[in-house]
Specification:
With 160 residues, this protein is α+β, with helices and mostly antiparallel strands. It has helices at residues 22-30, 81-100, 110-118, 133-141; strands at residues 2-8, 14-19, 44-46, 104-107, 127-129. A 3-stranded antiparallel β-sheet has the order 2-1-3. Strands 4-5 form a two-stranded parallel ribbon.
């Protein structure tokens, strides 16, 4: 796993994103799968990050000062916490995978189909797809039961 700080172009929001590798980040960027979780901007890139420098062997690690998060939330982990965080993220990824079993990819038709099911115009079924942030907010305001996925999903036609 690798962590990058990403930044959207429209609002300058900085947020943290986890990827399996640098190549995974590049592939998702090229395919347009990255977006700002705060404003939905699809134009995101890597933000400047401070390098992780290991402390000298004879120095004691100091706990980081607590600060209030600004635009994006982050976490500083103590010794041994990184492995726990990886475990939690992998558990979350497995839970998403299980939730998507039996779900149908509907791509950009997600909002339309979710509304149709909500209003009884279409049989209810488990679907997943793409929706802009503002449209997702509109669905929630209408009472349509939707939830964001924590990890990007590769559309079936792109997997080959």
């Amino acid at each position: 796993m690798i962590v990058f700080d990403l930044k959207c172009e429209s609002q300058g929001h900085v947020f943290e994103a986890w990827f399996g590798s640098s190549a995974d980040y590049e592939e998702q960027k090229v395919r347009g799968l990255l977006s700002c979780p705060l404003c939905g901007d699809m134009q995101v890139g890597k933000a400047v990050m401070a390098p992780a420098v290991a402390p000298k062997g004879n120095s004691r690690p100091e706990l980081p000062a607590q600060v209030a998060p600004s635009d994006g939330a982050s976490i500083a982990m103590g010794a041994g916490e990184e492995a726990k965080m990886r475990e939690l993220i992998q558990s979350l990824a497995q839970a998403q995978k299980k939730a998507l079993e039996g779900s149908t990819w509907v791509g950009r038709g997600f909002a339309e189909q979710a509304r149709a099911m909500h209003y009884g115009e279409q049989d209810r079924s488990s679907i997943h797809g793409e929706v802009a942030l503002e449209e997702a907010r509109a669905l929630i305001a209408e009472g349509v039961e939707v939830a964001p996925l924590p990890f990007p999903v590769v559309p079936p036609e792109v997997k080959n």
